[in-house]
Amino acid sequence: MPALKAADVEQALRKGGSARVDVDVAPKFKPGQRVAVRNLNPLGHIRAPRYVRGRSGTIDRDHGVFVFPDTHAAGTGKSPQHVYSVRFEASDVWGPGPPGDGAIYIDLWDDYLEPA
Amino acid sequence: MNGAHDLGGMDGFGPVDPDPNQPVFHAEWERRVFAMTVASGFLGRWNIDMSRYARESMDPAEYLATSYYEHWLHGLETLLDEQGLVTREELAARKAELSRETP
Amino acid sequence: MPSGDHGHDHSDVPSDLALRVKALESLLVEKGLVDPAALDVLIDTYETKVGPRNGAKVVARAWSDPAYKMRLLSAGGKAIAELGFKGRQGEDMVVLENTDTTHNMVVCTLCSCYPWPVLGLPPVWYKAAPYRARAVRDPRGVLKDFGVTLPENVEIRVWDSTAELRYLVLPQRPPGTEAMSEENLAALVTRDSMIGTGLAKTPGQGEAT
């Protein structure tokens, strides 16, 4: 593709580029369901933060189907799949003791999760 | 990858400095790095996940010791080199050239 | 160190960096890979045009118009686009409402994901290690750094933007603002109140930053 021209900047920014994929993929989980984050430590790209791997939470909402970053970064395809906001109780992530109140909501893809 | 970018839960960085009067950019080089990164993305040679990975693959000690737009610069240089668009060698040579011109 | 070129001691960083960036730009321009005029437009856009005043208009509208607020909370992106704000890094927006019992706060622990069309580019602290490390672990402590203390019975929900959803917090409308116009309300909406590290200002507290 040629270099972005000054005259095209505004339009290009307004258009953006959604990572949402318009394909029909069945979700593996549904809101309210308990899930655990798989213990994944790939050498490549991953968007499941270390602090939540192995922890359990509850699916809060299903955001729909998105590009999967691990394969997309490796150049091996979009692997479209559902992304959910998953709610983790702070005490389940950090253990006992202050400041363990509240919750953390993390956006996670189907391939990062398994039933708890 | 388990890089230095994955900061959630790490201790010891001290308090947040919430200074509300910070400018959008602190130096001209930050402006240029931001704009070059966004503009080069439109070449279509890599995607956002590749560019995040290029920043994350920075040496962990260096990542923590440098600022945000230095991470972006590292990422952009890495991607351009990988794609053969601007190699490390070309960059080093041009830098040396410019350095001789402006002592 | 992949390049071997910049692993030296960092005392000379500013001038060295400027040179490194200049070298890169000159090569990109020479090879026709970037148009310097396009770089200037990009910089001007995010330095002077797109910023948290956009988000403040969205919040003020939601405070003034209950039907708009409902649309905003159920389909954030569409409702935000009604005011003309959309595009890069705001393609898939989610709006989170703060209430008497719930306080939402947004972070990106892995990088710096942030809703550009409504807030502009993120402030330095949002991208820096102290906030990214501690927001998920000690949100009350972080709020204290911002001068905010919330009652114990308020549940703090921290949203880690790990995917391509971008979050905007709808702060609580301050008391004593019932008669205010949408424009005056917008002046009370701070950037930090839309990230969740602050609260909206009360009338007489001065201009929003």
For the largest beta sheet of chain C, what order do the strands appear in spatially?
1-4
The figure for the number of domains of chain B is 1
CATH topology of chain B: Cyclin A, domain 1
Q: Mean pLDDT score of chain C, rounded?
A: 92
CATH top level label of the largest domain in chain C: Alpha Beta
Which structural category fits the helices and strands of chain C?
mainly alpha
Question: Spans of chain B with pLDDT under 50 lasting ≥5 residues?
Answer: none
User: Helix coverage percent of residues of chain B?
Assistant: 55-70%
- Count of folded domains of chain C: 2
**Number of extended strands of chain C:** 4
Average pLDDT metric of chain B: 95
CATH superfamily of chain B: Nitrile hydratase, beta subunit
User: Please, what is the oligomeric state?
Assistant: heterotrimer
Q: What CATH architecture label of chain B applies? A: Orthogonal Bundle
Radius of gyration of CA atoms of chain C, rounded to a whole number:
20 Å
Number of helices of chain C: 11
User: H/E series of chain B, N to C?
Assistant: HHHHH
Number of helices of chain B: 5
Main beta sheet strand tally, sense and closure of chain B: none
Describe this structure in words.
The complex is a heterotrimer of chains A (116), B (103) and C (209). Chain A is built from 3 helices and 5 strands; from the N terminus they run αββαβαββ. Chain A has helices at residues 9-15, 69-74, 90-94; strands at residues 34-37, 56-66, 81-89, 103-109, 113-115. Chain A has a 5-stranded antiparallel β-sheet with strand order 4-3-2-1-5. The model of chain A has no long low-confidence stretch (mean pLDDT 96). Chain B has 103 residues and is an all-alpha fold. Chain B has one domain (28-101): Nitrile hydratase, beta subunit (Cyclin A, domain 1, Orthogonal Bundle), CATH 1.10.472.20. In chain B, helix 1 (28-41) crosses helix 4 (68-82). The termini of chain B are far apart. The mean pLDDT of chain B is 95. Chain C folds into 2 domains: 12-48, no CATH class; 51-195, Alpha-Beta Complex (Nitrile Hydratase, Chain A), CATH 3.90.330. In chain C, 44% of the residues lie in helices and 11% in strands. In chain C, helix 4 crosses helix 5. The longest helix of chain C is centred in the N-terminal third of the chain and has 18 residues, at 13-30. The radius of gyration of chain C is 20 Å and the shape is globular.
